Amino acid sequence: MALWRSTFIVSAMTMLSRILGLVRDMVLLNVFGAGKDFDTFVVAFRIPNFFRRLFAEGAFSQAFIPILTEYKTGRAHTEVQILISRVFGCLLMVMSLLTLVAMIIAPVIIYAYAPGFHNDPEKFDLAVGMFRLTIPYLMFMSLTAFASSILNSYGSFASPAFSPVLLNVAMIAGAWWLTPYMQQPIMSLGWAVLGAGILQLAIQIPELWRKKLLIPPKIDFKHEGVERIMKL
Q1: pLDDT by residue (tens digit) across 79-89?
Q2: pTM over 0.85
Q3: C-alpha distances in Å from residue 203, one per residue of 19, 150, 191, 221
Q4: Residue 12 forms part of a structural domain
Q5: Which of 68, 88, 107, 209 is the most exposed, fewest CB within 10 Å of its CB?
Q6: Residue 6 domain flag
Q7: How many CB atoms lie within 10 A of CB 181?
């Protein structure tokens, strides 16, 4: 019964996300059209979004969940809390440094990823600004994937499954209500993406708190569980 319930929750939230994704695309094209500004956003956001899928929801989750499950089933709850604390601290430090470096070298990244933009200085500068605004999304989504992995391991699927919906909602809201207040209207989508990253992480916090799994971060790369996750 629990399996069917979890399957229904995840399927329903995925369907809702897909429907809102269609609505989002219709709204964005209606508000911004298919001009160069929208192309700039697509290119700038594609970079953190690609690494989100590759690392946050890919390699990290696949490495973290087996170790967490092993600790959960074979060790005391305090040891699970210590593992979560150490992984949280190490992940937060690595992603913060990566985000900072990416923001500093943003012109180099945009030039390498979209060399054609260099021929249009205005478009290139907009892409750099958009990238610097959206790259923190990668850090928040890495932490969201971390929180979702914990909750899924403890049988909680509703908030992790609902979190992708928030990106579509934030982008629709940004296009409709934030655009009139922006000097460069397309930047409203950058702020929407940043806000969505914060919301997707925040929605996991109450459930983690109730399960006594909201543990302050501590950096310890020598912790046995952290070392195994890094190797995986």
Answers
A1: 999 999 999 99
A2: yes
A3: 20, 14, 18, 28
A4: no
A5: 209
A6: no
A7: 9
